[in-house]
Amino acid sequence: MIRAAYLAAEGFEAPLATELTRRGVAIGTWHGRLALSPDPPVHAAWALDIWTDPREVAAPSVKSAADALRAIQRNWAAYSVEHHRRSALILDRLPPVKVRPLVFPQPAPASHLGAWTLLAPDRMLASPTKSSPFVNGACQFHEDHIGPPNRAYLKLWEALTRFGRYRGPGSTCLDLGAAPGGWTWVLAQLGAQVTAIDKAPLDPRVAAMPGVTQRLDSAFALASEPVDCLFSDVIAYPDRLLALVRRWTDCAKHIVCTIKFQGETDHDAADAFAAIPGGRVIHLFHNKHELTFLWTAC
Ligand SMILES: C[S@@+](CC[C@H](N)C(=O)[O-])C[C@H]1O[C@@H](n2cnc3c(N)ncnc32)[C@H](O)[C@@H]1O
What we know:
- There is one protein chain.
- The chain is of the alpha/beta class.
- The protein has helices at residues 13-22, 62-72, 84-92, 152-163, 182-189, 204-207, 238-248, 267-274, and strands at 4-8, 29-31, 34-37, 47-51, 55-58, 76-78, 114-120, 123-127, 172-176, 193-198, 212-216, 227-232, 252-260, 279-282, 290-296.
- The chain is elongated.
- The relative contact order is 0.12.
- Residues 150, 152, 176-183, 197-200, 218-220, 233-235 line the site of S-adenosylmethionine.
């Protein structure tokens, strides 16, 4: 029996598998990037999406498959690994689910969404509930190809969308490891007062934005001080970053921080971040070999 399914981001099946093993969760088999487990669902940072109530459904025909899904609920997202043609035919018979890229700071979709896949031509796995409001965990945005100096802004757009909080005018933000300024650009656009800390300079267009102050300094040399939001995208060993974040939980109201891994994934460090009260660790659709720590003061 399959009691949970965990969707890894492309190329990140291995850290998800290790994380699940560390949590005592067995993986029966993989179906594409979907780890099928006989154990009840648990939070897994490396899963883009978690199918929390999967059941196997007979699908002797395209019509019966679509009817079975429609009998459960309206909105379904397909995860197609094989039998693509048959999946497309089933999809055609389901009510359309509009997948429009978000226009930041538009909130994440609120409508209920399930997920299904064909395990075999005549057998589906369908879960009416899943952890991500996005189809297969893919949080897509209308991109801005002109304003930001790099693509790092997408990561912060997604983190803020997942956080559900936008600190706008009047809020004070510290952006550690800010250069060339994708995150600072996002925060300044929201109207925040941003102090950007990096040993390297910001892109001059970002440095000139209203509300932006630049300091050429090390993030680790900074004395902690009261601030609404602390952001960090600094390249640093996870343990070093953990010490920095712990120090700032005394002074900040919110923290968004990228935990970057070089070589092996440091699962112990990821668990230590997740254990900070008020914090959670997730793998964003826009994250590479890194996790994002989201924290709010309790
Ligand atoms: C991935 S980049 C950050 C990109 C940035 N978030 C953006 O949106 O443009 C990492 C940055 O960390 C900076 N960095 C590395 N060590 C640092 C330190 N000790 N203090 C401050 N910045 C540091 C690097 O100079 C680099 O600009």
